[in-house]
Each structure stands twice: as C-alpha cells, then as structure tokens.
Amino acid sequence: MTAAQEEMMKKARESLSASGHLAAGGYYDFAVARAYYAMFYAAQALLMEQGRTFSQHGSLLSAVGQYLVKTGMIPAHLHRNLINAYNARIEGDYEPGGKFTEQDTALRIAHAEEFIAVAEEKLGPLPPASNEADTDKS
Asked: CA torsion sign, 102 to 14 to 92 to 46?
C-alpha cells in the first residue's frame, strides 16, 4: 500500500468511526453521509492501485464500475451499495427533515464496513499507528 493509499484508508476508517458516533447520538442523516465518505475514500484507495485518481463523485462512481467491478477486483453489489450511499448522502444533506432511521443508518454503516474490509483485503491492512510523541526528534 502506498502512502497515498494509506492516507485514504485512514480517512475511510475515521469516517466510519465518525459515522458510528453520529449514529449513536441520533444524528442519522449525518451518519449516513459519513458512511458514504468512508466508502468513497476506500474506493479512491482501490483506484489508486491502478494509477487512477478521481475527486468528483460521479467520476469516481463510474470508475468503480469500470475499473473495479468489470475487472473482478470487487463484487458488483459493493458498487450498488456505493451508489445507493451516494444518493442517500444527497438526500440527507440537501432535503429538509430527518430522512433516515436508526435501522437505515445501521445498514449504511454495515455497507461501509464491508466496503472497507474488501479494500483492506485487496490492499492489505493499515500498518499499526505509530506514536510520534515516542519518537526522539533531537
């Protein structure tokens, strides 16, 4: 895993964690958005494996289908879950009122967990966190 991929996977893990915290607090629309971003960052890391980078959501969603699903790198249902998560994020972010329930949110978080697990299976797990405070900088 390259340093850039490692950073994307760290962001994916942090977004997943934030999603869980938001859900626990009852902030379901925001939790759904963070679950989507967890998948988005993991997808970026997987696409980097092929030397491809995308910052626009639509381009990334299309590239996942073209370069990850069609090549057999990831199962097609992960792509569907990613697209559904994107659409849910749009609903939660831009439509008035609470859109998502605790159950909806739990499902989105489970999809993000699965996406990250597959990405780590393909890329390798993140290395253990180092504690920079323990490093002698003199």
From this structure: negative
